[in-house]
Structure formats: structure tokens, C-alpha cells
Write a structure and sequence with these properties.
mainly beta; 49 strands; 1 helix; 50% strand; 1% helix; globular
């Protein structure tokens, strides 16, 4: 089986860099060019701070100094393990732990080892754990080893999910600190309680590992981090999943006062001290109502960010819910303490997405429709000639489009805008005003009344119809499919617009810069203060075999990593690495 990646937005894998545009187009300044000392076929990526770069194959790995481009070390797994590791099956880099986990099932015996990335030395190696082979099955479900291991940064430990127990391992020594048979499955999300040195964890059962965790049940558990003693155990409703490609858990735990909030298909509220469920509002639309599995060409698919997170205030919670048909939505308000339903809006027909809820004064502002993330694994071909698997991460439009204002005291609609016929960007709500762009105009509305304060013609900006919007303080940035423009909040006048950058599909904001990527894998770095394009680099995707691990740290498609402050770009072409200066 062949695999190929066509990725827009968040990405998997190491890719190749081509020269930046010639002629008048700006070019990022090259800081250095270097080599990873191996092909980087499994990993070729940089740490978030840009100080370290790792390249690895199945048999060897190396570390580069991100500041100088010099090779720090190059080692073989066989040498650092006295021959116990040779041809590794899978690797996981955890930058927050400064470690690489290496898996090898040589001679049918599973081994896992931890490598210290600072010096490339083996921290420990164990063979008591059992792990599935990281290979996707015919239905598109992958046995992801990442789903079985969670790094607890606060205690510097790994939580290893095994068939019969959850085992806590010390990062540096590999010592098994404790294990519990009461927690079944993998850790979907956790919260650390520093005042008591305890963990609150929610479990989940990865689809690729259903056979491993037989007898699974939904568990929410508070555990002492020092010895694994269970303080309390509760159950939850729904099914925890992860996004198809980027493997982000679709569950979230949070704490407010003495309450524990579990966000999963709605909201479930628990007493933090006892684990007793206080109340819940449930909405389980199967990956937000848009997942398609095994239908047509898609082996697995999901759309994310289509339903707004529950909006929690000091005394109430606002939740987007839907009926059984999933096309009709409504908003409900609940009392935070008791869960009593305070009001329900009328149904919004054919509302496939309500991605944002925000409060301005006594008005709940609701965005209808939008440009949301779709991730899918698609298969093409036939059994005779072989299949090609495409990993696609993109954005798609979900109608219907509009903005509405709801009275937070009564749940009655105060106003609705019908100006967004073809599309709507994300809304920006600030100081009693609501900002958003359609395909043709940048709008400002008065939040309490819905009165249109101004409409600025986007055609004059020459950046194309709006895709995304984000807050810039006294300005609102509109990313269109030909570039980006900034408009003053006060009067809607355009502050600047970029040179044309056609085919924009995604963006990311870092520091004082915003980066755009288009459908040709070009990445442009833009100065947020004046809209100047500082540089453009072109990234071409490579192809991988089905058993390879993929680096998964880049916000964009292609072999490019950016530092968290947006100052530097690292571009990879097999073993070759180029460091580019943005500012």
C-alpha cells in the first residue's frame, strides 16, 4: 500500500524545501545551512524554541545546535543500547520531556527505551510492556502508540496504559513508581493538583486498540500522584476520541472553584472533592456531527471547531445543542451551581455550524457557519493495482452564515444579520462591537442592537474574499484568499494590505508576525505592524511508506518548523536543513 500526503493547515511529516521566489518577491535571510547527518526519514524537526533539531531513521539519530547549525552528536540505537535496540519500529519525540521514546519488537519481544536528547544517552530500556505495531488497518484506524503514553510534566513521569493496569514511570530512571488496575484504557486528558500532588484523569479507548482494552468503561478518576491511591472514581457520558490526523483529544478537563468541568459533547459538572456529578448537558453528535467513516473514499474523516465550546461565566453556562437530525441547533443557558435550565433559544434551522459564542454586556453574540478544519484519511485505487492513502488536513465552509445577538436574561433574539450570504470569517467581539467579514465587506455591528455601524469594501484591499479574522488590539486582521489586510476598529478604514499572495488556505500568528500558507505550499511571513511581506519560502511535500512515523509539530504542511516567537523558520530537505531569519 502506498501513502501520500496532501496537507493544508496542520501537517504530518518531514518535507522538502525549494528555493524561495525569485525576482521582486522577498526572501528570508539565511542564517545557516547544515546537515542532519542522516536522511531524517522518521523525524526531521526542531524544538519549539528552535534551540535543538533532531533527525532520525530507524537505526540512528542525531542532534543539531539550532543556533549554530553544528552537529552536536550522531549515534546509532544499537551502540547506545549495547545491541539491544537495532531497527526501531516507532519513535516519539517529547520536547517537553527532552526525551525520545524508542520502540523495538525485535524477535517478537516488545522493547521500549527512553533517550536523553541532551546528550543522546540511553536513560533506560524495558521489555515488560506490550505495545501494538503502529500500523493502520484497512478501516483507517491506526494503533497509535502516542495514545498509550502520556507525559505528566508536573511530576516528570510517563503514564503507560497497559491491558491490565496504568503504570507510572519515572522519566530519568525508568523506575515504576506505582500501578493501578482500577484505571482502564489510555489517559485522554489530565489536570494536576499541586496543592495535594494529585491527578484528575479521564480515560478513553483508542479505536486502533479496542482489543487491547477489553472490558473498558468510562472513568473519571482522582489519584494521588505519589502512590496511585484512588481518591474517588466517577463515570462520564459520551465517547472520547482524537482528531483524525493531529491526534488532539476531543475532551477537556478544567476547574473553577470547587467544581470540575468535563467538556465532552456538552458539559458535565462534578464536585472536585467527592467526584459526585452535580449536573450535565449532553450533546453527542459523533465528532461534532460531521464524522464520516468508511463511506465513499474516506476511511476516516472529522470536522473540528464547528461547535463552540461551552461558555462559562461566574454564574451561568451557555451551551450549543442540537436535535437528532444534527442540522438544527439551539443554545441553552444553565445555572452554574445547580444545572437548572434557565432558557432555550428557538431552533436555528439548517445550522450546520455555530463555531463561536461570546458575551458583550447583556448580549450573547453567536456566529453561524464558518471556515472550519476538516481532517481525513482518503483511499483511492483498487485491490488489483494497489491503494494510495491521502492524509488531508484542510479547511471547508459550513453554512448557513450569519451573526445573531441574544438577550442573556431571556434567551430571545435581539437581532440577526443577513449580510453573510456566501461566507463569514471568525467574529471578533470587543468593547460592545462585533466585527466580521463576508466575501465582499468588512462589517462592524453594535452588539446590543445589531445596528450596522459601517461596512468597508474588501475589494479595495485586493486580498480576496475573507477567510479568517483575528483581533489586533485597535485593528482587526482579515485574511483573504489573496493575502491579509488590517482595518481600524474605530471607523473601518484600511490600515494596510499585503502584496498579493494567492491561494491562501491557512494561517498562524506568532509573535509580531503572521504566516500564511497557500495551496502551492508557499509560506509568507508578514509583519503585523505594517503588512510587509518579509519573505516567502516554498515547501514541497514528500511521500512516506505506511509504517513510518511522522513528525507532528508543525502548524503548516511541509517540512517547516517555526519557533514559538515567530523569529525563525527551519526548513528540511531530507538531511539538509536551512535556518531562515524572519525579522
Amino acid at each position: 500500500m502506498k501513502t501520500k500526503q496532501l496537507l493544508l493547515g496542520l501537517a504530518l511529516g518531514a518535507m522538502a524545501i525549494m528555493p524561495a521566489f525569485a525576482g521582486k518577491d522577498p526572501v528570508f535571510k539565511t542564517v545557516w545551512e547544515g546537515s542532519l547527518d542522516n536522511k531524517g526519514s522518521l523525524y526531521a524537526n526542531a524544538s519549539p524554541d528552535g534551540e535543538r533539531l533532531v533527525g532520525s531513521t530507524r537505526t540512528e539519530f542525531c542532534l543539531m545546535d539550532g543556533k549554530t547549525g553544528k552537529l552536536v552528536y550522531s549515534k546509532r540505537f544499537k551502540d547506545i543500547s549495547d545491541g539491544e535496540l537495532s531497527n526501531t519500529n516507532y519513535q516519539i519525540i517529547m520536547w517537553e520531556a527532552n526525551a525520545m521514546l524508542v520502540f523495538d519488537n525485535k524477535l517478537g519481544k516488545d522493547r521500549i527505551a527512553a533517550v536523553d536528547l541532551k546528550d543522546g544517552k540511553m536513560l533506560w530500556i524495558k521489555d515488560r510492556f506490550s505495545f501494538p505495531k503502529p500500523k493502520e488497518d484497512a478501516s483507517g484506524n491506526a494503533a497509535q502508540l502516542e495514545d498509550m503514553i502520556v507525559y505528566i510534566e508536573e511530576t516528570r513521569t510517563f503514564a503507560f496504559a497497559q491491558k491490565e493496569a496504568l503504570i507510572m514511570i519515572d522519566l530519568l530512571t525508568g523506575k515504576e513508581i506505582w500501578e493501578t488496575t482500577r484505571f482502564r484504557g489510555s489517559v485522554g486528558h489530565y489536570i494536576y493538583l499541586p496543592e495535594s500532588n494529585e491527578l484528575v484523569m479521564v480515560n478513553f479507548q483508542p479505536k486502533g486498540l479496542l482489543a487491547l482494552f477489553s472490558g473498558f468503561k468510562n472513568q473519571l478518576m482522582r489519584i494521588k500522584a505519589s502512590n496511585g491511591e484512588v481518591v474517588w472514581e466517577a463515570t462520564y457520558r459520551g465517547m472520547v476520541e482524537k482528531t483524525v490526523l493531529t491526534r488532539d483529544p476531543l475532551v477537556k478537563l478544567s476547574i473553577s472553584g470547587k467544581k470540575l468541568f468535563l467538556q465532552l459533547g456538552g458539559l458535565q459538572v462534578y464536585d472536585l472533592a467527592s467526584g459526585k456529578e452535580i449536573w450535565g448537558a449532553y450533546y453527542q453528535p459523533d465528532l461534532e456531527g460531521f464524522k464520516r467513516s468508511g463511506t465513499g473514499k474516506n476511511l476516516r474523516a472529522g470536522i473540528y471547531g464547528a461547535i463552540a465550546d461551552p461558555l462559562i461565566t461566574d454564574n451561568a453556562v451557555y451551551i450549543v445543542l442540537g436535535d437528532d437530525k444534527l442540522k438544527n441547533k439551539f443554545v441553552q443557558k444553565f445555572d452554574l451551581e445547580t444545572g437548572k435550565e434557565l432558557w432555550t433559544t428557538e431552533k436555528i434551522k439548517d445550522a450546520t455550524a455555530i463555531p463561536h459564542l461570546q458575551i458583550s454586556g447583556n448580549t450573547l453574540v453567536m456566529q453561524l457557519g464558518g471556515f472550519v478544519n476538516q481532517q481525513r484519511i482518503t483511499r483511492e485505487g483498487n485491490p488489483q493495482d494497489g491503494y494510495t492513502i491521502y492524509y488531508v488536513n484542510e479547511y471547508i465552509w459550513l453554512p448557513k452564515f450569519g451573526i445573531a445577538g441574544i438577550d442573556i436574561n431571556t434567551g430571545q433574539y435581539i437581532w440577526r444579520s443577513e449580510k453573510f450570504k456566501k461566507r463569514i470569517t471568525d467574529i471578533v467581539v470587543d468593547n460592545g462591537k462585533v466585527y466580521a467579514a463576508s466575501a465582499e465587506y468588512f462589517y462592524c455591528y453594535d452588539a446590543p442592537t445589531g445596528r450596522e455601524l459601517y461596512a468597508t469594501d474588501l475589494n479595495k484591499a485586493k486580498v480576496g474574499p475573507g477567510l479568517f479574522a483575528f483581533d489586533m488590539g485597535d485593528k482587526v486582521a482579515i485574511v483573504g484568499d489573496k493575502g491579509m489586510a488590517a482595518f481600524a476598529k474605530g471607523d473601518g478604514k484600511m490600515a494596510y494590505s499585503t502584496e498579493k499572495f494567492k491561494g491562501v488556505m491557512s494561517y498562524v500568528r506568532k509573535g509580531n508576525n503572521v504566516f500564511l500558507q497557500n495551496d502551492k505550499y508557499d509560506i509568507a511571513g508578514i509583519d503585523l505592524s505594517n503588512g510587509e511581506i518579509k519573505g516567502i519560502v516554498n515547501i514541497k511535500p514528500s511521500r512516506h511508506t505506511e509504517n513510518e512515523a511522522f513528525a507532528n509539530d508543525s502548524e503548516f504542511s511541509g517540512g517547516v518548523d517555526m519557533t514559538f516567537d515567530g523569529e525563525y523558520i527551519y526548513a528540511f530537505r531530507k538531511e539538509e536543513v536551512t535556518k531562515l531569519k524572519v525579522n
